[in-house]
Amino acid sequence: MSEVGIKTTEKEERKNPMLSIRIEKVIVHICVGNNWERLQKAVILLKNLTNRKPVIKKAKKTIKNFGISRGSPISCMVTLRKKEAEEFLKKALEAVNFRLKSSSFDRNGNFAFGIKEHLDIPGTKYDPKIGIFGMDVIVSLERPGYRVKRRKYRRSKVGKRALISREEAIEFMKEKFGVEIV
């Protein structure tokens, strides 16, 4: 059995709401390297785009070729959930013309894509103080009830029907957002 999840039909989803797929979270990430001023500008940009306070992430290991040492701040990110996640995802997909590569999807139904310039996102304007940044958008999909795998108290395994396969995630994105898979 190579497939992670079991394919569900629309009829089964209407009968059992626990089989419906939803967006669990959207992570917006900007990596700038070892430049503190540029990182501060990226933080301001993410705050303007998402209306959330970004978290500054530090390097996990030293890379001498890039001048990055372990523990130095190199990137910032914001996690969006529920309605905010869906609204931002629509804007981000519009920036890439509603096209995603099939290789962007992993076997667990999650996917990620990049935006070359934040100016491609509708509703953003160029600010010479900030500059131009590219960013990564990472989307995590799940079914209701998947929380039992992550919770602290009485953690449990999730059944095969609760897992999302790559094909189901692609189908979900086609139906819900009208995404074209290249």
Q: How would you characterize this protein structure?
A:
By secondary structure, the chain is α+β, with helices and mostly antiparallel strands. 26% of the residues lie in helices and 21% in strands. The protein has helices spanning 10-15, 36-50, 82-95, 166-177, and strands at 22-31, 55-58, 73-80, 99-100, 111-115, 135-142, 180-181. The strands form two sheets. A five-stranded antiparallel sheet has the order 2-3-1-6-5, with helices on one face. A two-stranded parallel sheet has the order 4-7. The longest helix is centred in the N-terminal third of the chain and has 15 residues, at 36-50.
Rg from alpha-carbon coordinates: 18 Å
Helix residue percentage: 25-40%
Structural class: alpha+beta
Terminal Cα separation, in Å? 26 Å
What general outline do the C-alpha atoms trace? Answer: globular
Spell out the key features of this protein:
five-stranded antiparallel β-sheet, 182 residues, two-stranded parallel ribbon, 26% helix, 4 helices, 21% strand, 7 strands, alpha+beta
Topology record:
Elements: H1 10-15, E1 22-31, H2 36-50, E2 55-58, E3 73-80, H3 82-95, E4 99-100, E5 111-115, E6 135-142, H4 166-177, E7 180-181
Parallel strand pairs: 4-7
Antiparallel strand pairs: 1-3, 1-6, 2-3, 5-6
Summarize it.
The chain is 26% helix and 21% strand.
